[in-house]
Amino acid sequence: MVYKVIGPIVRDSAIIYDELTTTNDLPIGWTDEQTNGKYRFEKNGNDAAVFGWTVGPQSFKEISFPTNSKSICNP
Question: Is 0.85 surpassed by the pTM of this model?
Answer without folding.
Answer: no
